[in-house]
Design goal:
It is a single chain. This protein has 15 helices and 14 strands. It is elongated. About 50% of the residues lie in helices and about 25% in strands. The protein has 4 domains: about 100 residues, NusA, N-terminal domain (N Utilization Substance Protein A, Chain:P, domain 4, 2-Layer Sandwich); about 60 residues, Beta Barrel (OB fold (Dihydrolipoamide Acetyltransferase, E2P)), CATH 2.40.50; about 70 residues, K homology (KH) domain (GMP Synthetase, Chain A, domain 3, 2-Layer Sandwich), CATH 3.30.300; about 50 residues, no CATH class. It is α+β, with helices and mostly antiparallel strands. The termini are far apart. It has a 5-stranded mixed β-barrel. A 3-stranded antiparallel sheet has the order 1-2-3, with helices on one face.
Amino acid sequence: MPAIQRSEFALALNQVATERGVDVEVVLETVKNAILAAYRKDHPGIEVEEFVADLNPNTGEASIVHNGENVTPPGFGRIAAQTAKQVILQKIREKEKEAIISDYKDKMGQIVNGTVLRFAGPNIIVDIGKAEAMMPSTEQIQNEKYYQNLRLVVYIKEIREGLKGEEVIVSRADTGLLEGLFRREVPEVAQGSVIIKSIVREPGNRAKVAVASIQSGIDPVGSCVGQKGVRVQAIIQEVGGIEKIDIIQWQEDLTAYIAAALSPAKNVQVHLNEEEKMARVVVPQEELSLAIGKDGQNVRLAAKLTDIRIEIEGTELPKAEAVDEPEASVEVEVEEESVKKPEKKAAKTKKVSKIETTEDPEIVKDDGKEADAQHEAEEIQVVTDEAVSEPVGESPAAEGAKTDSE
């Protein structure tokens, strides 16, 4: 029986080392150190350097040797076995963590699916499969709500040292998240026929993506948008459905590139100074709010996308157009009033024509009473003229009498 137990120890040790990727010699050396630590705990006054722990890898028997003499206390084999078990398990956990970290080092710069596990202060612990990753508050979308068991897509940003060793850091605010989503949702981007030149974003608000095609016959913007916007809508939903994405075509002509970057504003005139890396942009007054964006967001993102300082201003409308506007409104008012009061159409038309053809400015400047009196007089005159112009009809009785006499 003892031989069977010893052989089982060796087989178990080799099996665990093979499955977990742990070297047998490393485990044995760690167990020896743990046995010495356990012996020193029972004998606090000794010098550990003078003692040597011996562990037989075939039988699993442990002993303490001092100056060539076996000083193993009775019953120490049980303590050594428990210590060895704890050390092996600890070593296995460390090796597994190292293997996982090494695996995710190869996945840095990629997106993975995750689930919110718990909250550690302002930070969020996310389950990403084999490991738990941390999403700091700076890597979160500020206007996005997180709760336990929430499924989301995260970007593996880096691996850095933390309080408990190396930690995987994931992000929802990095531009790499959008790039990964475009690669997943747009086959042309994944194949390389459409290239993402630049991405700038303000997480949770707006993002601008510049794309270009290296293959003739492929529309880069249309490929990313998809039929009826299916592809870009899927990407927007993955970032919470609260972030707008502008997809523009990258151009070598910097002037045209700046004009496209300021979309959705149209009729943009760009005056570029390449030496100072500054552009003066003129847009119509009605397009000025679109070009600037909310709190300057649109022009700020366009400046980051093109790496050019942009100064934007609006142009006023010509004076002729500004003067014509009140006249148009007056005509509309007269037409609306004429529709409501058809019986006074002739009178009002005559009054307007009289005011327009008169040469005496005092008529226009009369006070309210004189104008009303004149208006009433004109109405009476128009009605009288109509009455005179119409033939006076005979009564039915008179017509009948005339017929009888004939």
